[in-house]
Amino acid sequence: MSGITITVSTVLALLGLAIAFFYMKRVMSVPLDMGLNEKDSVRLKFIHGAIAQGAMAFLKQEYKFLTIFMIAFAAIIVVLIDDAHTPDYREGIYTAVAFLFGGFISIMSGYIGMKVATQGNARTTVSAKKDISHAFDVAINSGAVMGFALVSLAVLGLVIIYAAMSWLMADLGSENNHVLMEVIAGFGLGGSTIALFARVGGGIFTKAADVGADLVGKVEKGIPEDDPRNPAVIADNVGDNVGDVAGMGADLFGSCAESTCAAMVISAVAFAADPNALLYPILISAVGIPISFITKLSVSVKTEHDVAPALMKLLIISSVLMAIVMYFVTMALIPGSFELGGKMYSSMGVYWCFFSGLVAGLSVGLLTGYYTSEKFKPVQEVAKSCETGVATNIIYGLALGYKSTVLPYLCIAISIFVSWNLAGMYGVAIASLGMLGTLVVALTIDAYGPVADNAGGIAEMVGLEKEVRRRTDILDSAGNTTAAIGKGFAIGAAILTSLALFAAFITASEKLMGSPINMSLLDPMIYTSVFIGAVLPFLFTAMTMKSVGKAAFAMIEEVRHQFKTIPGLMEGTGKPDYAQCVAISTQAALREMIAPGVLIMGTPLVAGFLFGVQAVAGILVGSLVTGGVLAIASANSGGAWDNAKKYIEAGHHGGKGSENHKAAVVGDTVGDPLKDTSGPSLNILIKLSAILSLVFAPFFVQYGGILLG
To answer: What are φ and ψ of residue 226, in 5° steps?
Structure first.
């Protein structure tokens, strides 16, 4: 029967790749010069080429660094955990192979998404000359390539690594399936490691360019956003892709792989001799592929008023379909009753765990949309606060971010409580996969955002008629809201994923130790390590914010220098040096992403080696609780400032060029690194620390706690 489960997952993954290829061909079939005169066509192709080349050049440099790092870290895995508790199976070598394979799949996913996004942006622009419907189709199809390709590669990668490791470790026996699953967890660690640097590096790149372009161009020089006279404008458009496409893709690929690995580690204890239930977590993501395709076919746009509702329909319809289909899948694969941790649970309970995660994810996304969309009162209040200056704008934005954490955290807390009661630690892992059940759709609408944003920028730089820019602005406005929803969704998924990984870490450690782990808050080691874990997100945020500030300083100096030294630049007769600004962002991103990475990956390793499993567990709990709150507050404050600025630009409170607008631009500049660098990167902090701890559990159990004797 396990062969049937593997076969179904493989077929659905291959179907997803075929769908991604289909949508890629549809995007590429749109001619770049459609409806353009010769002058505009030449200009558009130049700008499109500059954005695509800049994005791919950054990825090439980043992946070169990551390849060296991944090989070095794989060697550390071999040294630290090889033969830790299975001397006949070389667990360290197998885990290192899974780690490298997970990293490779994550890189491939990011590359595909980036490639299509940078091809879809200009094609969305030319399609907007025809009508809003065609432009929407190109943008959403570009996003669909990312969604279907990434989830399909994740499922296919998990199937391949499971099949390969099952064959290599065939002599283990079902009673030692937990060892096999711990090895497979290396796949999730590889994906999450790539996500760390893609998120942090991409976030620093995009915000350095964005801040430099906005402060000098819009505030100091008073020129429009995406004005071709601005030397940082190409780097800004490149940054949208490296941060929001490659970065978000790697982030959610990591969540998908990590949640699945966490569930399989726990299920190896609960269902050691039942391959159906053992592979159920992989099938959850696989089932989401055809459901997302059906959802995609059911939604269309005919007028400009249909754009935002269409994106929301994608989320809601896919969630409803997943809830229905997964009931039958769960009943078919999970035993009617099973034991875990000395308690009895049921298959119906497992389904409700999945359902609670699905509903929590949708709720977090909708709440994020409420707090960050200019259509609703919170953002409109932030916009109105600009009438009394920058200070009140900052105050209102911060207050909104802090307040916006309450309801999402309550939704997640309810999901945790329900799932833990219905199926224990396994239930929490399944809830995290429930939240990721609509991952294809979430990625589709998230990648749609930067494509639409780039399309508007290209229209401005080419100098196309105002109607084209108006249509791309409609697409971009809807994309801003869905991008904020995507960030909220990613944060919520990271919180549940991290908790599932924590549960898997405790399960694996207790299995290795042969005794329960004392997690009492009255234990001084637990209490102290929780405090240490609680400050890590704040230190990480400080490091990434300062990195953006340093990179932005260099960008601002360069843009000012070019305006001063290039004759005729302000008049439009001089040619800005776009490449220099791209180079500044690239160098800053690659340099500044190292220290945060060392902090995240080094802390659990050092703590575990010096103080043992308890210390690691406490650090994971502390960083999870505060990291999730800080991530939501940062992302929502930044999103609110951004859309408050756009609300004013739409003609409210004085409109473009007013003092209120200048105050809103400053607020948006402060919020940019919060919502696009620090906030999203905190997802990686709480997930990567947990998956790394799970993979190195054998090392902590056997060699950790040297200072405690």
So the answer is: 65, 20
